[in-house]
Each structure stands twice: as C-alpha cells, then as structure tokens.
Amino acid sequence: MIGLYRPLRCLTPKATPARRLRPRTAASFYSTSTSASTSATELHPSRQKWSQPPSTATVTDAEIANLSNKHQHSLSLADLVRHGRPPLSTEALYSSANFTLSLLPIRLAHRIQALRNLPFIVVSNPNISKIYNNYLHSLSTLLPWKHRTISNIEAEIQFTSVLAELVQTHQDTIPILAKGFLECRRYISPGEVTRFLDEHLRARIGTRLIAEQHIALHYSSVPHFDPSASPTPCPEHPSYIGVIDTALCPADVVNSCANWVAEICEYKYGERPEWIVDGEPETAFAYVPMHLEYILTELLKNAFRATIENRHKKEPIVITIAPEPPDAGPPKVKLDPPAENLGAFRSEAIKPLDDNAPGVTIRIRDRGGGIAPEVLPNVWSYSFTTFSEDDMPGGGSGADALSVISNTGGGGSSIAGLGYGLPLSRAYAEYFGGGIGVQSLYGWGTDVYLRLKGVGKIE
Ligand SMILES: Nc1ncnc2c1ncn2[C@@H]1O[C@H](COP(=O)(O)OP(=O)(O)O)[C@@H](O)[C@H]1O
Ligand SMILES: [Mg+2]
To answer: For 51, which of 27, 302, 423, 444 is 20 to 30 Å away at the CA?
Structure first.
C-alpha cells in the first residue's frame, strides 16, 4: 500500500510574509473595529454587487451565465461507482470520463456565480480574487471538451491530465480563502462569511470527489493500470472503487491520524498525549478515506490541544468506535450499467448509496476541561478560534490566524488557529448524511460524537 493514511493536510510550510493583525480572541472575532486592511482599501466599501470582478481568464459572461443557469444534476454515490469495479474496461473508462465531463463545467460555473455575488470589495481582495480566477481558469480548460465525446485513449489521457491540473489548482483554496476573508473582515460579517464558506466548501468537496474519482479509476483501469503511478492509496487493493474504500477500518485511520497529531504536539508543546481506541476497533464500512482522515485529524487536534493545555489532568483521550447494528435488509446496490437519466437537482451533496447504509459513530472523549459556555455558540463559525500562539510554551510573537496560515500553509501542520476545523469537519461528515455533535462538560472535558453514514453496500 502506498501511504494509505497519509494525513491529507501535511502541507509544505510557506515563507509568505504575514501581514500582522492584532491577536484574535473570542471577543475581537465579532468586533467590527480592526486594523485589518486589504489592497482594496482605496475602494469604497460598497455593498453593491458587481457582475464582473477582476479576472484574467477567457471565459465569456454568456458561457458562465448559460452554465450557471443550468441545474446541477442530482448525484449519488451509485453514480460514482456505476462504472464497475476496477480494473475498468476501456469502454467503462470512457463512460466515466464522459460522465465526469457532463458534471464539472456546471459545478464550476455555479461557484463562479457565487463568488460574483460577494460584495465587490471582497472579491477584489487579492486572495479571494485568486480563487475566483482559479475557477475561471479551470472552467476555461474544460470548455473545449464540452461538446466532445471522449472515445479514444489519447483523449481520455488528455482529459485526465486536465482533471489532475484542476485538482492541483484548487489544492490550497482553504488557506487562501481564509486569508482573504480575514483581510476583508471589516467589509463582510462573520455570519455572511460562514454562510458563503459553508456552501462553497461543501460544493468543493463534491467537485473534488468527482474529479478525483475519475483520476483514481483511470489509474486502476485496464489501459492504464499502474499501481505505482496512482495518486490514490492502492489501486490493486480489491476493496477500493476509485477513492472509495468499501472496507475502511476507522480504528486504523484513528491511529494513523493520532500519530500524526501527536508528532505536531511534540514539536509544538514538547509533549504528546496518550490515546486509547476501544469499542469495536475491528469495524469496517464503505467510506472515502480522505474525508475520514481530514475529519479525524481536526477532531484529534482539538482533543490533544485541550488535553495538553489543561495543566492538571493528563488523562488519555479515549476514542470509542461504535458500529450501528446491521440493517433489516435494505436493498444492496448492484453495479448496474449507467442510467442515462440522472434525475433532478436536489442538493449540492452527493447522496449515499442507500439511506439505510450502516454507519459508525466515533466518540472522541478528552479530559481537556471542556468548552466555556460563552465560547460554545461560536465554535461552528468559520474562523472562530481561541488559539493564540502567545499561549504556546516559550511564549508567542503575538501571532494570529494570518500568521498561522502563512507559517503552515493553512494550518495543516499547526495544532489550531484557523478556526476551520469543526465547521469543515461537519461539512465533510454531513456530506454523506452523517454529522458531528459536541458535548462539553465545562471544567471537565469534551465528548465529540462523529456519526458517519456508510456510503452504502456495494455488491
Ligand atoms: N475538544 C475540545 N476541547 C476544548 N475546546 C475545544 C475542543 N474542540 C474545539 N474547541 C474549541 O472550539 C474552537 C474552534 O475549533 P476549530 O474549529 O477546530 O478551530 P481551531 O482549532 O483552529 O481553533 C477552538 O478554538 C476551541 O476553543
Ligand atoms: Mg481545531
């Protein structure tokens, strides 16, 4: 296996100079008086919505309007696995490519339209406008394919490389958007930012999943079978269908992510908390390992940080794996030939294979002192954090979220500070119909319940 559970957000530190703002606290997060500035401060902070933010790409307004007026197809995981189990035949590979092509331009156009609907001064911020231009660029690379049918191997290879570039282009979206919205915080309220990001980042999860699924299927198809070249963990592993592992063991992912987070703790605090996995660690279910890695890394960071910062209690973090009882027999999903009619658009999220797919609940219990009642209502807001590097051993430098982003490339190798961990983890969990609940026993510790709905049974 090639790096099966490599933590997703192990990003290379970037040496971008940080613009220093004063340290953010719970109170200052909601304060409107701030020294934040943007390169667009010369512009009047108008609330007017503009249809044409600055752009460098060559997609016409008519094309964007045309695509963004189209409904997004309702998408289910059955669609993602309907091309069959790997290795895919050449015909099934073309079918996957054409299906991917039918979805992505509309999804990108919807995102472009949502960015255009932000106040002009916000989308003019260099970071937000970088993301806007990334979407325009990606759409411009897909449009030449729009009226084509992929039916030969050269075209399929070219198309897959366009997808690989798309995934790469949008790799750093989260830290860049986080930076942009921090710089714009005097022009847009935290509530508006959370509303925008919640929709945008959920849509991004689906778009990446669609593109990554075809890339993974490409490498595990008959014409291109090459395990060593695959960007996905192990195409030769029979439990994988593209990026979905039909026999994922959450306890393995917990241990791998906890080891990674413990290393960050050792580096940042000079100590690593202990953890115990109990319940039914042998449980396996069908899920997307990359998503589970993201969620568990963020939840474990929170639990580990709280445990270390609670000077008096160094009890181990207990992670309990509780499989749901087997269902009373929902129909198993068969890999039927592709259906032409995808149905009407219902939501951004991808529907699970079946509503009764057995799930797993993972409880992460720490003795880190809990969450203060005045903090609790804010923890689901993007950008809300109680982290300050001043609290780190040896003192800090007054650093804030902007320097966390600049120093770590988005918080991947930082223990906290971006304030995206809980809301984004919840977005991932809800994507397939799961969820996250936080129970704080203030003065004692926190229980986080991560409920994951399996993506369904696949025969
Ligand atoms: N297990 C926990 N124990 C105590 N506080 C927590 C825990 N989980 C989350 N929090 C609180 O919620 C806030 C937001 O968490 P999160 O969204 O992960 O952002 P960040 O970790 O970057 O601050 C944290 O700053 C912290 O105050
Ligand atoms: Mg966190």
So the answer is: 423
